[in-house]
Amino acid sequence: MAVEDHALFQALAAHDAQTARHSRRVARLAVSIGRQLGVAAAELDRLRHAALLHDLGKVRIPARLLQKSGRLTLFDWDVLRRHPLDGLRLAQALAPALGPWIFAISQHHERWDGHGYPGRLGGAAISLGARIVAVADSYEAITARRPYSGGTPASHARSEVQCNAGTQFDPAIVEVFLDMPRAVIEEGAGDED
Q: Which domains, ranges and CATH numbers included, belong to the chain?
């Protein structure tokens, strides 16, 4: 399955190229983390595809909101918080190919402490794929240059991830992530695309 060629990913890329670039970088980081965790090669491929589609639900968010440079309103946040479940609905036809990794799409904003969204899941109730993608997604978002941000240095982003181990992130995933060589992490993030 070549998800980058799949109509769903192409629709995301057409809707918002920045989100598509972000998704590619998140996928690279997620696979690197999965590899360090010992995830089997066939499962790494499924993880990569799910990570590529983790923000698929953003095709239902107006592009002007995704590219907004000012402060988000409460209404804006309500709209944005719909994307995990919208993404899962859109990707449902891929469920047989993705297996349990599909839940990385709907659960990547859940938090280890149970204060995330959309389901307020916590701990091991969050799928492994979502726990991996959450770390990769956050790190990439912190380091990426955006219209509203020049990007944060990798060292600060690593510290931010470490500070949120046990609250936002699975501490075991964070430990594996932080043990990865910096070159591997930085290759997966930033604005090389």
A: 3-188 (1.10.3210.10)
**pLDDT tens by residue, 54-105:** 999 999 999 899 888 888 999 999 999 999 999 999 999 999 999 999 999 9
Amino acid occupying residue 180: M
What would the DSSP string read from start to end of 31-97?
HHHHHHHT--HHHHHHHHHHHHTTTGGGGGS-HHHHT--SPPPHHHHHHHTTHHHHHHHHHGGGHHH
Asked if pLDDT for residue 2 goes beyond 70, the answer is: no
Q: Which residues contact 5 (CB under 8 A, 6 or more apart)?
A: none
Residue 107 has pLDDT above 90, yes or no: yes
